Amino acid sequence: MVDDKEPLTKEQIYERNRLAFAKLANITLSDMKKNETRTYQQYTKEDYRSYIQNPKSNEKNLRNMSRFFYIVSSVYRRLCKYYAEIPLLNWVLTPQIDMLDPQDPEKVKKAYQKALKLLTNMNMKHEFRKIMTTVWREDVYYGYIYSTTDSWFIDTLDPDYCKIVQVEDGCYNFAFDFSYYDKFQYKLETADTELQSMYQAYKKDTQNMKWQILNSKKTICIKAGEDSIGEVIPPLVGIFEDLIDLIDYRSLIRNREEIQNYVLLVQKVPVYDKTEGVDNFLLDMDTILDFDARMAENTPDQVGVITSPMDITPLQFKNDAPESDVLSKATRMVFDNAGTSQMLFNSDKSGSLGLDASIKTDEIMSFSIVRQLERWVRRYIKQNTSSIKFNFEFLNVSAFNQNSFVDQQLKLATAGVPNKLTLCASIGADPLQTLSAAYVENTILGLQEQFVPLQTSYTQSNTANEGGRPEKDVSDLGDAGMQTRDGNQNADTIET
User: Fold this and answer.
1) Please, which residues have CB within 8 angstroms of residue 483's CB and are 6 or more apart in sequence?
2) Alpha helices for 123-239 (secondary structure H)
3) H-helix segments, 73-184
4) What is the pTM (predicted TM-score) of this model?
5) Are 224 and 248 in contact (CB under 8 A)?
6) Residue 496's pLDDT is what?
7) Cα angle vertex 378, ends 373, 383, to 5°?
8) How many CB atoms sit inside 10 A of residue 136's CB?
């Protein structure tokens, strides 16, 4: 039977894509009908030592512990964000050309534009930043990709229901526990149709289909500890005990401040001095209790009242170290054990030599995660583009080395190195945006012909004296300079 349907117009195609995007944008993240709550326990050193003795069996506990510190400790949060945000995630894409058998330039250009559109649509600087933060906090990130021609984002999956089971093209594939949707049924309604089908398969065979490997074309998995695939341990787990100390010190200081503002009134009950009897008070018990109650009623909360026939001698175990020194020492221990210079977060410290060395070490650690993202993007390009191969690269550019990297690329460009796209990417320009801007300015608007540099001494040579730089103004010359100009003493140094 012949299909008599007419081809869709551009407007109809746009509307279809818009509706697809509308569905995509409505992925349910929480149930509005229920008040979801999440509680964190207060962790102790004993808890930490128990978990770390058997990390494989305590992956969930260590992950929750890391999340707890991420919320309550600004120091830990800053460390995680610091490592996650070191790379600027500037990227370049280059077609792989066989110089002995080059492909048709138009075919390469078409495939190149398609790949650039795909990558630009991914908005990697935003999406991957969230991945980096999770990886540094929890060690591993599991995500499911939702995409249309106009949008692309990653839905973070609950790591309690995920586990790494495969390596494909150097990237991790993982299985998902579909009993998750038994607990969060509302999320299934807007989930990808592929996930819905896999859940139906699980309902038919809950024993064998509970764990299913998700489609590698729609998933991303990044792990900080590549040397320990079988264990999920937060990268900064070594400072958890120091963070507990830091929290405890703050609590102790607060308690000490409260105690210092507390007043205790002692009422001493008088007794007969010349008696050999026991408990011979000058006042009866009813009178004592009556005065004690009246005193308590007329004192503020910060004042305590006790009644005693005995002398009370206070014993204090004083720490002469100032409170700020105690906290500073505890904070310094956190940074030292993390291997990060405290000077990055403390303006009271100085020393550029040690700081530069520390930053370079931190960059090496952070860019090791970027290499995984880079390899995953290469696989994603191969899965979603034509047969032409591309080389994708995240530049080793951070906020600390960006200026020196740009200077290096400028020097290479003056030597004839074909690095114009790398140079633009180093300052954060998207490759597709760069090419589009060049096309608009040069081909469509012809700005290179309309934006003519001003005719000044900086853009043209001196007609009266063809050699050397433009002459300085008289007001800028000193006595020696005036004598040199009046005597024309530099005339012989001009080459003809």
Assistant:
1) 489
2) 124-138, 180-183, 185-188, 193-204
3) 74-85, 105-122, 124-138, 180-183
4) 0.74
5) no
6) 39
7) 120
8) 25
